[in-house]
Design a protein that fits this description.
By secondary structure, the protein is an alpha+beta fold. The protein is about 40% helix and about 35% strand. Strands 2-3-1-4 form a four-stranded antiparallel β-sheet. A hairpin with a 2-residue loop joins β2 and β3. α1 runs antiparallel to α3. About 20% of the residues are buried.
């Protein structure tokens, strides 16, 4: 299992656009056969920060996710163009 979080900061005025992009990206990503979980969150008390929790069956599933047209359109062509900061935390399950 491959699990991680992605934390991104955006301009406050981009909040509506980011929500729209994330809805589309999450819906498409959840349809991928190797996607276990894809859950974007706004951070409470910080209207400019999004945290996405993602899980994939294996590295090949993650690679397939990053090669999809929806990732190219919504992540690279959308979120990445608007984000001001980005950090990834790779996770290891306790059990």
């Amino acid at each position: 299992m491959v699990s991680f979080t992605v934390r991104m900061r955006f301009a406050d005025e981009d909040r509506h656009a980011i929500s729209d992009i994330l809805e589309k990206l999450a819906a498409a990503s959840r349809q991928e056969p190797g996607c276990v979980s894809y859950i974007p969150h706004w951070v409470e008390g910080d209207p400019t920060t999004v945290v996405i929790y993602e899980q994939y069956k294996d590295d090949a599933s993650l690679d397939a996710h990053r090669a999809t047209p929806h990732f190219q359109q919504y992540a690279i062509g959308g979120l990445y163009q608007l984000m001001r900061e980005r950090a990834v935390e790779n996770l290891t399950a306790v059990i």
